[in-house]
Design brief:
Radius of gyration: 16 Å
Order of helices and strands: EHEHHEHHEHEHHEH
CATH superfamily: HUPs
Structural class: alpha/beta
CATH topology: Rossmann fold
Helix content: 25-40%
Strand order of the largest sheet: 3-2-1-4-5-6
CATH architecture: 3-Layer(aba) Sandwich
Strand content: 15-25%
């Protein structure tokens, strides 16, 4: 993982996902999360993209009746071909963590690996999640040292109000550890699944 210690002057916005393939919806979420952290907490010093493992993605695709065609290395290459999502903020790809971890370990291992890489600077990691994946942040946010940003996703708003009433969510929001923000584009809901099926 080529993330230098000096890269994190300020908070790091971290987005974990399958990225099969990465698309403009991911970049929209990154920009919205980065802006929210900068406006409400402190300037964002870096952005880190961390793809899930092949094991994780293969299991996810089997549930949809799909085969694994977007391998880990292919997804890394596709990310590296992109321009930085936010001009002026260094963007790094965590190409180690996701190669080895499965579904159960991801919420622990990704922050653990980034903290070991970044050292003391990593005490300000903001993990990005879409509103459709809000429950996945419970284990992460029950630790009072952890932070996250929920980026509202169009088309997945039905259960959000109910989820926002849960104690762990309300506590993290009140403590300023969980920021909820809108995407720039709240009309078009692009997904990797639709991109794969149209390819």
């Amino acid at each position: 993982m080529s993330i230098p210690n000096h890269a994190n002057d300020g908070s790091s916005v971290v987005i974990v996902g399958s990225f099969a393939p990465i698309h403009r919806g991911h970049f929209d979420a990154i920009r919205a999360a980065s802006r929210a952290v900068s406006e409400q907490i402190e300037p964002v010093g870096s952005i880190i993209l961390s793809p899930n493992s092949d094991e994780y993605l293969a299991r996810k695709l089997r549930g949809k009746g799909e085969e694994l065609s977007w391998t880990y290395d292919r997804r890394i290459d596709a990310i590296l071909e992109q321009s930085a999502p936010v001009e002026g903020i260094p963007t790094f790809v965590d190409d180690i963590t996701g190669r080895y971890i499965g579904l159960e370990e991801i919420n622990f291992e990704v922050p653990h690996t980034l903290r070991r890489s970044l050292g003391l600077a990593a005490n300000r990691l903001f993990f990005v999640t879409g509103s459709d994946q809000l429950p996945s942040m419970q284990l992460h946010l029950e630790n009072p040292d952890n932070r996250s940003v929920c980026v509202l996703r169009p088309g997945h708003m039905e259960a959000l109000n109910e989820q926002l009433q849960q104690d762990w969510v309300m506590r993290a929001v009140q403590e300023g550890r969980y920021i909820i923000t809108e995407r720039d584009d709240m009309v078009n809901d692009i997904s990797s699944t639709n991109i794969r099926r149209l390819a």
